[in-house]
Amino acid sequence: MTKHIFPQGALELVILRILKNGSNHGWGISQKIHLLSKDVLKVEEGSLYPALARMVQKGWIESEWGVSENNRRAKYYKLTSLGRKRLSSEQENWEAMAAAIADILGMAGS
Length: 110
Description:
Layout: H1 10-19, E1 24-25, H2 26-36, H3 45-58, E2 61-67, E3 73-79, H4 81-105
Antiparallel strand pairs: 1-3, 2-3
Helix pairs in contact: 1-4
């Protein structure tokens, strides 16, 4: 199956949604994306970590060092209250855009 890259802005939305369920480290976020998308979406380190850094800078998420499941030091990310607000507004925008595109793609009688 072909792996797809994220459309502009979608990676941050997906990261915010994953972190809504609790903190996670970068590799864990990447694996969750892969799993939840049923192997359709894949995020490379070169895209994931810059996105996480931008999101920390914007105040949407915060990070702290911790120990992973396999006893390794890892940076964990968690959603902030500003990030929760951003997730809500971006999710509404995404759903409206996806519905509009679906309507266009499914035009009857064309």
